[in-house]
Amino acid sequence: MVGLALSYALSVTGRLSGVITSFTETEKQMVAVERQVYYINNVPQERIAPSGDFQLREEWPSRGSVEFKRVSLRYRPNLPLDLNEVSFKLAPGEKVGVVGRTGSGKSSLVLTLFCMTPITGGAVYIDGININKVPLHILRSKMVIIPQDPFLFSGSWRSNLDPEGNVGDDAIFWRAVERCVLRSSLENMGGLDANVGERGRRLSVGQRQLLCLARALLRDVQIVCLDEATANVDRASDELIQETIKKNFSGRTVLTIAHRVETVLGSDKVLVMDGGRVAEFDSPENLLSDQRSLFAQLVQKSGCQRSADV
């Protein structure tokens, strides 16, 4: 009996180790469930639809005008204002570049425009309509944003160009790709059904941004936002992307948050942000003519020279 007890006692140690390992793995896997429950119960939910009987025209926005009226924004109640009574207006089809030092509030403008963060005060109007009255799924479907890091799906060119499957004619895809100088790259990879790799790993960073531009062309919207879209590409790719935007988004309102100052020299107007406020808002020519302006100082510090054709 003693020998039998000893033999079983030795095996219990190994089995107990397996139980502890299984318990630890279960605890690790439940962290994801715990986080989901926390976000569901404690994080404020986005508004889905406005209250009341608000009617919106199906063709809205038809012009693409954008107006910020005394907009203030803070990300948490105990933090200072990131946007402090910001007011400016973008005319339909106007190309506006946004510059400023780090933390001046440039990216907060785009977050406000897409209602990613509730504003503290003021209002944003698109074609005269307060965007707080527009359902989020409609508002965000009427604009396009091209972020600093191009987002691609692990799949074919076709699924990345048209994730929702709204385009049925291959000729439309090829026209958009050709307008974004990607036709040769697409043909070399095997056509629209060729796989771009995991999150577009088979493409360079510049090609990924151009593919995002082609996706924006297929959406055919009136408002396009570029949030430092050329920050991770070289100067030659930057120039190619800017030329593509200039050719293919004529007549659309384009808001460009610039990483390089020379990116916005060809814009209709330049918005200079400083400390969450609008410091300057005028054409590049007028701002550069005043050597004391913040924009002129930024251009001088960057060492870029304004070309004659801008």
From TrEMBL:
| InterPro entries hit by this protein | AAA+_ATPase, ABC_transporter-like_ATP-bd, ABC_transporter-like_CS, ABC_transporter_C-like, P-loop_NTPase
Annotated ABC transporter domain residues: 66-300
Q: Which residues form a coiled coil?
A: none
Q: Which domain of life is it from?
A: Eukaryota
Q: Does the keyword Secreted apply?
A: no
Q: Which PROSITE patterns match?
A: ABC_TRANSPORTER_1, ABC_TRANSPORTER_2
Q: Give the keywords, sorted.
A: ATP-binding, Nucleotide-binding
Q: What Pfam families does the record point to? A: ABC_tran
PANTHER family, sorted: ATP-BINDING CASSETTE SUB-FAMILY C, ATP-BINDING CASSETTE SUB-FAMILY C MEMBER 10
> What is this protein's name?
ABC transporter domain-containing protein
Source organism of the structure: Clavelina lepadiformis
Q: What is the lineage of its organism?
A: Eukaryota, Metazoa, Chordata, Tunicata, Ascidiacea
